[in-house]
Fold:
Amino acid sequence: MKFVRLSSQNLLLTEVLERDVENIVVACNDDVTVYYLTTLPYPYAREDALNFIKNSVECWKVGDVLRWAVRRLRATGEFVGIVELRKDQEFDSLGVWCMPKARGNGYITEAIQTVVAWSIEQNFTKINAIYYACMPENVASASVVRKTGFKFLGVKQSKEPYIHRDTGTTYKYLYSVYAPTDVDQFSSWGEYL
Ligand SMILES: CC(C)(COP(=O)(O)OP(=O)(O)OC[C@H]1O[C@@H](n2cnc3c(N)ncnc32)[C@H](O)[C@@H]1OP(=O)(O)O)[C@@H](O)C(=O)NCCC(=O)NCCS
Structure:
């Protein structure tokens, strides 16, 4: 699949570029990111960021993960975060993070809205079948996705216990699951809760 550049009122959604490497390293070593994005390598090295960038190109070719760098339109393209749409087996899902210094400005909300609208418009996604999962205590994440029109469906327990990287504490954590507002027609959502 060929990369698709998107834009919105305040943002440009472009390829992830090699020059984003330092920003990616900063964002992925940020305490909040580390706590909530449990699958990231930690500490997150420059090499990890370079792999992430390389992988972004490959994923577009395969068409299974569509990843965009989120940039401010009016700040010479300042990199503010990542949004990605993943083709999962049954449903598509969204993943996001924001540069710590860029948080609190609604950029990720706008980026999610842009990607979801594009995806539905292009029939890329089975209509209204995008889901978004976050840890229940991730208030910022939940707030962002609710603002984009997703609706809270419930909590789902993770299959495997989660061992925190730093403390070694093991616990089963729960995901809050969100989906677009008119998802009621999808009866099989029950399986995700
Ligand atoms: C999730 C994330 C992308 C949101 O970034 P953002 O767009 O800057 O979000 P904000 O900081 O504006 O927060 C969004 C909302 O949550 C609220 N919020 C943030 N932290 C909060 C807290 N600790 N308690 C209560 N409300 C909080 C903000 O006030 C804001 O609400 P508002 O829009 O009604 O004013 C960002 O926090 C991030 O990168 N987190 C780390 C990675 C991550 O968790 N990704 C998602 C995984 S599911």
Observations:
- The mean pLDDT is 86.
- The pocket of coenzyme A is lined by residues 32-33, 36-37, 96-98, 103-104, 106-109, 134, 138-141, 143-144 (CB under 6 Å).
